[in-house]
Amino acid sequence: MPESAHIDLVAPRGYCAGVDRAIETVERALHELGAPVYVRGEIVHNRHVVETLTARGAVFVATELEVPEGATIILSAHGVAPEVHANCAARNLRVIDATCPLVSKVHAEVRRYAARGATVLLVGHSDHDEVIGTSGEAPDQVIVVEDVAQARTVGVPDPDNVALTTQTTLSIDDTEEIVRILHERFPALRMPPNGDICYATQNRQDAVKSAVADGADLVLVVGSQNSSNSNRMVEVGRAAGADAHLIENASSIDTAWLSGKRRVALTAGASAPEVLVGEVADLLETYGFGRTGSDAPSAEGVFFALPHQVRAT
Prior knowledge:
Helix 8 packs parallel to helix 9. The chain has ten helices and twelve strands. The protein folds into three domains: 106 residues, 4-hydroxy-3-methylbut-2-enyl diphosphate reductase, catalytic domain (Cobalt-precorrin-4 Transmethylase, domain 1), CATH 3.40.1010; 84 residues, 3-Layer(aba) Sandwich (Rossmann fold), CATH 3.40.50; 84 residues, 4-hydroxy-3-methylbut-2-enyl diphosphate reductase, catalytic domain (Cobalt-precorrin-4 Transmethylase, domain 1, 3-Layer(aba) Sandwich), CATH 3.40.1010. The strands form three sheets. The protein has a five-stranded parallel beta sheet with strand order 10-9-11-1-12, sandwiched between helices. By secondary structure, the protein is an alpha/beta fold. Helix content is 37%, strand content 17%.
């Protein structure tokens, strides 16, 4: 390694308030109700988190139809379509909804726009759990727009009655370009005044940009492959001019990435636990990188109350 090579522990990083809330919901349910507790889908998109909760007695299922009648089911942070709630009611399941409040906000926007007869353009990835759940609020009126090419070609029944929402975990820069094109094509387009990309997504992307601007030539983002916000952080790092990689954990590092690098910006997606960041930093130190930056992963001051079923009395 070059002399004076170091790791910059970037902050904010790691768990956002919605992820923290979702994981604590499962932990408290297991403590208070005992195992098994069923969870629909991955509670958050992180393999380490899922494996840890599985070891404690959480049972992750692809659909609520797999859950025994009368059992407890926790809905993931990504949100679900109304059809899922109906299925849970039909099976007499005890539902604990761990949907992130910022995702619930987008669901409410879709319902509100759809009630006015609008076509809702939902900017996001069609195969992502959040988008699937959000689209389910008004499946006949929601059109998913994934990229600039679709923004340029999407058609709507009434160009004067169109609204826009977005997946909460997108790249801000990419989304801005899509929104700009849609505004040009549909001048009457309505959208929430403050947008839908969540504070944590924006803060983590901004922190990556800042780290690269300050001289980082390698960005390592700890997160799972199916984590949208983690993938977007990698894209932001590359767009800013750095070499950037998404890593599941310390064992995912290719030592060839480190050759000639002087400053490694180490960060984590919003669903990645800090313990994994620490393990990566420890490994990099064995390769001669000095540790700098923030030991505290986040001080964003955002807190979401737990679902009422698992709140401490």
